[in-house]
Amino acid sequence: MPDVRYVFRSEESAEIIQIRETIQIRAAQILSRLEEAVRVIVPAFENSVLRELSTTPVPGGNIHTLTKYVMDYVSLIVDNKEILTELILVKPSTNLQDVMIPDVEQVEVEVEGRTHPLALHLIWIIVILRFNLEGKSMHCAEASLAHLFIMNNVGYIVRKMEESPQLLEMIGDDYLKKLAEDVQQAAASYLTSTLDRILYCFRDDGLEGSWWGLSSRVSKSALRERLKTFNSMFGEFHHTQARRVVPNLQLQEKLRLSILEKLIPAYDSFLGRFSTHIESRKHQETYIKYSVKVLETIVMNFFAFHSFL
């Protein structure tokens, strides 16, 4: 803050000096009130993030407006770091009687490390945001969409931290790593919740048949039903992915490659074991709707129509 006495320093008449002193006193009072307002605004913002209770799901698991707003606010704090470091001298209050926040220990650890209070407030804001996002994910219609929502939103937080050396310096690598792990876990959970049912189609169990009480190697009718089930499930999967949003290009690519790594070898192996049991070429075209190459092409176009926000 400027030194008011220096700003109004002058060698004028007694009347001018009196006016100057009056202005000086008023200016000092205004600055004092501004400083106090700033000290109140940051905790008030933290509380508003915690209490933001909108439950309308974001279409496609996209980035929530709250996430963008909070990270813009965090960037604003970082931009005014020099002034705010002088004003924010009290550590955030993490003792919330009516709310249990899992990552509260992250702030407590930093307190023990004697991090500056302003940095602790930044960590606390992101901890609260992360907690709020977890609550919002519970309003998603499907578990897979909830995982995608967390992946996208926490991924957005991670990206904003990585893009700001000052913010990363204040918050530290440890919490960034934890958030990055959350993103990877959400991505893995998304894959599990969407692909496991499809991959289950490629098991050998249930394809054995019998003839006059004697077991045969493959039941052609069971195989046809299995292929029909896969075709239906993958068609639904394809349709669902067309409505899902992954604005981060790197996460897009990782998800696509992970889907390919799980799906293509399993499907290729299944066809290698059983496609010869489909009687004719006509039947093969009916029941083997997707070639391996077609599957690869479809998967590589998942999430492709959404650029980074």
UniProtKB/TrEMBL annotation:
Gene Ontology terms: biological process: exocytosis; protein transport
Which InterPro entries does its entry note?
A: Cullin_repeat-like_dom_sf (IPR016159), Exo70 (IPR004140), Exo70_C (IPR046364)
Question: GO CC: one term?
Answer: exocyst
Keywords linked to the UniProt accession: Exocytosis, Protein transport, Transport
Domain Exocyst complex subunit Exo70 C-terminal per the UniProt entry, residue ranges? 13-299
Name of one Pfam family that matches: Exo70_C
Q: Which GO terms describe its molecular function?
A: phosphatidylinositol-4,5-bisphosphate binding
Q: Which Gene3D superfamilies match?
A: Exocyst complex component Exo70
PANTHER family, sorted: EXOCYST COMPLEX PROTEIN EXO70, EXOCYST SUBUNIT EXO70 FAMILY PROTEIN
Task: Give the function comment from the record.
Answer: Component of the exocyst complex.
Q: Which family does it belong to?
A: Belongs to the EXO70 family.
Q: What is this protein called?
A: Exocyst subunit Exo70 family protein
From which organism does this entry originate? Davidia involucrata (Dove tree)
